[in-house]
Amino acid sequence: MGGFNLLVVGVVVVVTTMVGTCSANFYDDFDLTWGENRAKIFNGGQLLSLSLDKVSGSGFRSKKEYMFGRIDMQLKLVSGNSAGTVTAYYLSSEGATHDEIDFEFLGNVSGEPYILHTNVFSQGKGNREQQFYLWFDPTTNFHTYSIIWKPHHITFLVDNIPIRVFKNAESVGVPFPKNQPMRIYSSLWNADDWATRGGLVKTDWSKAPFTAYYRNFKATAFSATSAFSNVVTSEIQGSGEDSVLDAYGRRRLRWVQKYFMVYNYCNDPKRFPQGIPAECSHGRF
Ligand SMILES: *[C@@H]1O[C@H](CO)[C@@H](O)[C@H](O)[C@H]1NC(C)=O
């Protein structure tokens, strides 16, 4: 990814260069926001953990806001019987019409697969779930989960393999998250009313505390947020729709969607009596 031009309404053409905040220190980049000592930073800022017990879950939030860029984090999820637990890792702005880009890891009983749940909210509206099984056990090692957020598309990646692309479909009337800066959040909480087999399997509190680990956070931003108070209307030539993924990326995406996808809102017409959302048929891969 090189430099990248954005045309900003009412301002001038702003040429942004990549501002790499290549950081490996959780103390500098995050605040522990929930759960008291259940959220911890250790190893001199190299490692962070969240835990959940019967009293509370826990969470953290980035100090900075981001507006377009690539966010990478390595996670090692709750091992053993994690049924009923959800580890959420997401970008979000604030307020009733907030935007949000979500990864949520739905736990399971020992030996049964986690589900990776994804969603995209724009202007307060979500209902764009896609869910996947993973092709590895996410509890034995760290794996990298990434979000690439650009004005024309959002890409979700697991170990650098694209699993989902949400394209900007404003041309067919679908709002796209591109006007509100977002922070990075993560939390581990109890969601046994829906997480595992739709709520059938409950959290086994005799296994608490449940713990997830984080390391190697990296944010590569396209610009500081303050430069973008106006609406970004277009990317200049050269990073159009066709270049979202290269041929290899498209093949990997098809592989994931064919063998690992559990649920896709676009294939669930009974949820949408008014018709399948417009973005579903807009520029499919
Ligand atoms: C848990 O395991 C069951 C049985 O294999 C499976 O149907 C389900 O999709 C798995 N994941 C979750 C989060 O329920």
TrEMBL record:
EC number(s) from the headed UniProt entry: 2.4.1.207
Signal peptide (from-to): 1-24
Chief place of localization: secreted
The entry's keywords: Apoplast, Cell wall, Cell wall biogenesis/degradation, Disulfide bond, Glycoprotein, Glycosidase, Hydrolase, Secreted, Signal, Transferase
GO-annotated cellular components: apoplast
Domain of life the protein comes from: Eukaryota
Task of the protein: Catalyzes xyloglucan endohydrolysis (XEH) and/or endotransglycosylation (XET). Cleaves and religates xyloglucan polymers, an essential constituent of the primary cell wall, and thereby participates in cell wall construction of growing tissues.
Family indicated by similarity: Belongs to the glycosyl hydrolase 16 family.
Protein name in the entry: Xyloglucan endotransglucosylase/hydrolase
Lineage summary: Eukaryota, Viridiplantae, Streptophyta, Embryophyta, Tracheophyta
